Automatic annotation (TrEMBL):
Protein name, as recorded: Enoyl-CoA hydratase, mitochondrial
Cross-referenced InterPro entries: ClpP/crotonase-like_dom_sf, Enoyl-CoA_hydra/iso, Enoyl-CoA_hydra_C
Similarity remark: Belongs to the enoyl-CoA hydratase/isomerase family.
Assembly and interaction partners: Homohexamer; dimer of trimers.
Gene: ECHS1
Cross-referenced PANTHER family: ENOYL-COA HYDRATASE, MITOCHONDRIAL, ENOYL-COA HYDRATASE-RELATED
Keyword annotations of the record: Lyase
Length: 287
């Protein structure tokens, strides 16, 4: 996937959170807190809430996450989605205790880890606001979030936990290699050593740095800015960037051209250009 928006910090304080959306815990939801954030409620905010396991990504949590993403995807008010963790950790990777007793037959026959790429297939931009530890990052949510830039500070994140598990199985080796190159990806995957946010920034996994008390505000602010644009055109732009990361240059150029032409069939393209010529703020209708 393209480099995601990743806001990392040593911990996360919710005191500075923006927006008036209240925390919600829908019936039957055990591992997440879901709400709308931002001044206009245009940001979908998902908090991982499994602190006793450092937000390890068990099947129950991932099932709830898929449902939350589906709901925000279908919500016309929401233009971007922020995923964050708890005070101590963003996510501790896949749940080792859950995997420990599984057999080959159970994994293969039950399509274990299937559906984990829902974060990557959401058409709306997703931002990973990483606070505290983010273990096995390439196989966790961070590697799946798809937005063109990233932020972070003072957060240690480790690669797939090779000393514990045989090998990453949720796309970690593929996505990380495309993001940072073969050499660094090989070192991270094979050693399991942690890297700092500064090192991640230098490697291209993180583009900016924020202190802990600015983390969530910055994530929501970025999401609000995205949501203020045409949701239709934003989805097209996201698809085009993803094509650059996942296909050949020739195929990526064809995708970009096709989507560019497609914008000329939208009202928002006309409104955006007209507003630019008239030197006024555009009024997008997502049509």
């Amino acid at each position: 996937v393209p480099v995601p928006v990743l806001l990392a910090a040593r911990g996360c304080s919710s005191a500075g959170e923006r927006g008036s959306g209240r925390r919600e815990r829908p019936s039957g939801q055990r591992f997440l807190q879901v709400q709308k954030a931002g001044s206009k409620g245009s940001v979908g905010l998902i908090r991982l809430q499994r602190p006793q396991a450092l937000n390890a990504l068990c099947e129950g949590l991932m099932a709830e996450l898929r449902r939350a993403l589906d709901a925000f995807e279908a919500d016309a008010q929401v233009g971007a989605i922020v995923i964050t963790g708890s005070d101590k950790a963003f996510a501790a990777g896949a749940d080792i205790k859950e995997m420990q007793g599984k057999s080959f037959q159970q994994c293969y026959g039950g399509a274990f880890l299937a559906g984990w790429d829902r974060v990557a297939t959401v058409r709306k931009p997703t931002i990973a606001a990483v606070n505290g530890y983010a273990v096995s990052v390439p196989v966790s949510l961070r590697a799946l979030c798809r937005v063109p830039h990233a932020r972070g500070r003072d957060s240690w994140r480790s690669p797939p936990a090779v000393p514990i598990t045989p090998s990453p199985g949720a796309g970690g080796t593929q996505r990380l290699t495309r993001a940072v190159g073969k050499s660094l990806a090989m070192e991270m995957v094979l050693t399991g050593e942690r890297i700092s946010a500064a090192e991640a920034k230098a490697a291209g996994l993180v583009s900016k740095v924020f202190p802990v008390d600015k983390l969530l505000d910055a994530a929501i602010s970025c999401a609000e800015k995205i949501a203020s644009n045409s949701k239709l055109v934003v989805a097209m732009a996201k698809e085009s960037v993803n094509a650059a990361f996942e296909t050949t240059l020739a195929e990526g150029n064809r995708t970009e051209k096709r989507l560019f032409y497609a914008t000329f069939a939208t009202d928002d393209r006309k409104e955006g250009m007209t507003a630019f010529v008239e030197k006024r703020k555009a009024n997008f209708t997502d049509s």
